Structure formats: C-alpha cells, structure tokens
Amino acid sequence: MQSGKKIYFASDFHLGVPDYQSSRVREDRVVRWLDQVSKDAEEIYLVGDLFDFWFEYKHAVPRGYIRLLGKLAEIADSGIKITLFTGNHDMWIFDYLPKEIGCELYRVPVEREYNGKKFIIGHGDGLGPGDKGYKFIKKVFASKVCQWLFARLHPNFGIGLANFFSRRSRKMTGDADEQYFGNEEWLVIYSNEILDIQKVDYFVFGHRHFPMEITLKNGSSKYINLGEWIKYNTYAVFDGEKLELLAFETDPKITKG
Predict the structure, then answer these.
(1) pLDDT tens-digit profile of 125-172?
(2) pTM of the predicted model as reported, rounded to 2 decimal places
(3) Angle at the Cα of 228 (from 104 to 248), degrees rounded to 5?
(4) How many alpha carbons fall within 13 Å on the CB side of residue 45?
(5) Which among 23, 131, 236, 251 has most CB atoms closer than 10 A?
(6) Which stretches of 78-216 are DSSP H helices?
(7) What pLDDT sits at residue 254?
(8) Cα radius of gyration (the chain)
(9) Burial of 166 by CB count in 10 Å (0-12 exposed, 13-18 middle, 19+ buried)?
C-alpha cells in the first residue's frame, strides 16, 4: 500500500427499495461517502447488493442510479481501483458495469494481502452450513438456462416481477437481520473452518445486514460484517495496520464479540 492511503469496504446499499424517494436519499448519501473516501482511497471494495435488483438485458438495464454510477466511473477514471462483487439481489450483473465504470467484478470470495495482512472478501451468501433452500435457488438463478428464460420477459414485466419478490423476501427475513446468533452465525462458522486450513487476518463479508466485528477462535483473526445502508450506513477501512468498522453520518451500535 502507498503511504497515507487506505482501503475501503462497503456493501448492501439495496438501491431501489422501499421506494424511489427513499432510495434517492440513500443514493445521495452513498455518493457523499464516496466523495469523502476517494480523497485517500487506494482501493474501494463494494461487496454485493448495491441494488435490490439488477438484470442486464442485451439492450437494456434497470432505470436510475445515475448518480452512483457516474461517481464510480469518476473515481475509477481518477486511478482508484474499484472491485465489485455480486450479491444475492444483484447476481445478474454481467459485463455492463465493469465496462462502463471500469471495475473488476467477482462472484465468489477472493483472497488479498495488504501490508502482510491476509484478507478473504466476498458477499457471503451461501457460505457456511445451513440455508440449503437458498443454496439451491442460487444455483438455479446462476444457471444460463434461467438467465436466458428471464431475458425473454419484457423488461417492464421482468423487472417489476423481480422487485415484487425482492420486497416479499425482505418482509419474510427482516427480523433475522436484527439478531446476532453468536457462534451459530453461518459466516463465523465458515471463517473458523477456513482458519483450520490457512492463516487469514480478516474475513470481510456483507449479506447479513448486521454490522459485526467478531474475534474468531484463534484469538487474533476477525470476521467483519459490513452491515447495510438502509439503516446503519456502516463500512470498513484498512489503514495499513488495522481494519476498523465505522459508520457514515450515523452512530449505530456495532456488535462485537
């Protein structure tokens, strides 16, 4: 890392919900955050679910989000590396954003090392034990057949249908996002299992929506869940020595364990 530079991580903006007005307010907040962090950022990781739904048709993409996309393109053009992960809500990002913004796109966790500290970074959906129903659905949605069939739907109908099911899913799982399950957290279990194989200093995930900073079983490695931007506005920053979970324009309680 360059002296004086930092690496930033954020996820789960879920732009598009619950309505246009609320989403625009959130988008403006995200842009203000990007303006702030781009002053000393060496890299920015956006770790999935930027959008509550996204599907790229051959000649069409969802409307909106021009302030976010324009800001990301501006930052990438300035020479700051942006790495984007797909999440469970926007797994149908394909080549449009990497091409137009100039970012790298990943669908699975990646390993990185900075200043001797090893990171595993990913959205986090489908990792660890349990959640077999979702893991099956994810395989279906990731299939080329499913994507081809959905692309046959007119965008007005396809995007509207997807938004309906996304809001329905949020209502069904909303309570779980407000709970901390301790050692039963699937991503804590996953991280501890990885530590049996290799040394990792930081596991950085999104998906759970609950901002967490958990010390793992070896007493030194940490699992960081980035939280979300509907309620918490949390993000992480690595200054070359330590990774810290912070909040932008709010002061939420961050669960530590």
Answers:
(1) 989 887 777 777 788 778 888 888 888 888 878 777 777 666 665 554
(2) 0.91
(3) 95
(4) 25
(5) 236
(6) 96-101, 132-142, 144-151, 155-173, 186-195
(7) 85
(8) 18
(9) middle
Residue range 163-201, pLDDT digits in tens: 766 666 555 455 556 677 877 899 999 999 999 999 999
Per the structure block, which two tokens stand in for 35? 């303006």
Rounded CA separation 253/109 (Å):
27
Is residue 38 helix, strand or coil? coil
| Beta strands at 255-256 and 212-215: parallel, antiparallel or unpaired | parallel
* pLDDT value of residue 178: 64
Ordered by start, the domain boundaries in the chain are 6-256
CA distances from 151 to 31, 50, 87, 168, 171 (A): 30, 21, 19, 22, 26
DSSP state of 253: P
CB 63 within 8 A of CB 53: no
Q: Both ends of the chain: CA-CA distance in Å?
A: 29
Average pLDDT, the chain: 90
Length of the chain: 257
Phi, psi (rounded to 5 degrees) for 226? -75, -10
> 48-59 in b/e burial notation, b at 16+ Cβ within 10 A?
bbbbbbbbbbee
Per the DSSP assignment, residues forming a β-bridge with 1 are: none
CATH of domain 6-256: 3.60.21.10
Instruction: Identify whether the C-beta of residue 62 lies closer than 8 Å to the C-beta of residue 53.
Output: yes
| Nearest residue to 93 (alpha-carbon basis) of 140, 59, 55 | 55
In the block, residue with structure tokens 């679910």: 49
What values do phi and psi take at 120, rounded to 5? Answer: -115, 125
Residues 93-117 pLDDT 10s: 999 999 999 999 999 999 999 999 9
